[in-house]
């Protein structure tokens, strides 16, 4: 377990962890900002409570965004169940006094006249929500048709765990939803050059050539702008590509935009994970 994970599990953060084992906490924290984050939440929910489906949401004003979902829904009814879950999350509300709100529900009777087998049992569901700044984050879990409702002890366990899970969801959303504004990244030559040459990966001249490539100048244009020959431009470009282990202008653009997005804040995932509170 690394220092970031240990600090996230510290009682200094004032967040209830429910009955999570340390290894479970570590698996959640290490997945923040990564594609497997929803599957880690689902795995713990499934092992601890016994659920068939878990979905995560952020509600910001009137905008509802699904942060991820994992598990199995009744065959042939997936879209209907998802729509009903979104409806439940959308209409849910929290009072200013509530730290965590809970709600149990059943999905609508999935089949009706003329739509297959009448009377299929609905899914048993539960919704847990908590505020994070101005947003409301929700965790929805389902048990498929034929399963018992979620027991009161299991509901209490989930309620105790909600604040910690929402803290992790908030950081995950910040990493995955709040994209940087990349318009300035390609519109100002001075800023491009500063970013390209900022960490010493390239020599001064190699950085100048790459910056002008990204700015959209041709080989002749770069040569005129820098006062060097076209052959020199091609030589500096070749050296720069070799240093960066790339082989095309497209790869240069990908490298640069990644560098631009992460500049000045170190490893983004680590800095965000430190704020799970």
Automatic annotation (TrEMBL):
Question: Known PROSITE patterns for this protein?
Answer: HTH_LUXR_1
Molecular function in Gene Ontology: DNA binding
Query: Residue limits of the HTH luxR-type domain?
Result: 216-243
Presence of keyword DNA-binding: yes
Which SUPFAM superfamilies does this entry report, sorted A to Z?
A: C-terminal effector domain of the bipartite response regulators (SSF46894)
State a single Pfam family of this protein.
GerE
Which example biological process does GO assign this protein?
Answer: regulation of DNA-templated transcription
* Any coiled-coil regions, as ranges: none
The record's keywords, sorted A to Z, are: DNA-binding
Under the heading InterPro entries, the entry gives:
Sig_transdc_resp-reg_C-effctor (IPR016032), Tscrpt_reg_LuxR_C (IPR000792), WH-like_DNA-bd_sf (IPR036388)
Q: What is this protein called?
A: DNA-binding transcriptional regulator, CsgD family
The organism of origin for this protein: Roseovarius litoreus
């Amino acid at each position: 377990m690394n220092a970031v994970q240990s600090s996230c599990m510290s009682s200094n953060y004032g967040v209830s962890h429910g009955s999570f084992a340390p290894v479970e906490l570590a698996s959640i924290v290490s997945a923040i900002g990564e594609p497997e984050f929803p599957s880690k939440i689902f795995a713990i929910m499934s092992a601890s409570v016994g659920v068939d489906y878990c979905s995560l949401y952020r509600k910001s004003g009137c905008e509802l965004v699904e942060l991820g979902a994992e598990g199995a829904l009744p065959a042939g009814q997936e879209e209907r169940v998802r729509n009903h879950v979104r409806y439940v999350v959308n209409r849910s509300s929290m009072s200013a006094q509530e730290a965590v709100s809970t709600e149990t529900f059943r999905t609508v009777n999935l089949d009706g006249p003329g739509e297959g087998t009448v009377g299929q049992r609905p899914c048993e569901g539960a919704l847990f929500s908590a505020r994070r700044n101005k947003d409301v984050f929700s965790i929805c879990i389902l048990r498929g048709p034929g399963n018992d409702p979620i027991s009161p002890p299991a509901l209490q366990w989930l309620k105790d765990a909600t604040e910690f899970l929402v803290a992790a969801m908030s950081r995950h959303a910040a990493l995955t939803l709040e994209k940087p504004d990349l318009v300035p990244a390609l519109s100002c030559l001075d800023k491009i050059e500063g970013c390209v040459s900022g960490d010493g990966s390239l020599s001064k001249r190699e950085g100048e050539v790459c910056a002008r490539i990204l700015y959209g100048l041709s080989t002749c244009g770069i040569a005129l702008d820098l006062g060097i020959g076209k052959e020199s431009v091609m030589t500096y470009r070749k050296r720069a590509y070799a240093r960066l282990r790339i082989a095309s202008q497209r790869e240069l653009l990908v490298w640069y935009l990644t560098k631009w997005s992460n500049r000045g804040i170190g490893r983004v995932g680590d800095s965000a994970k430190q704020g799970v509170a």
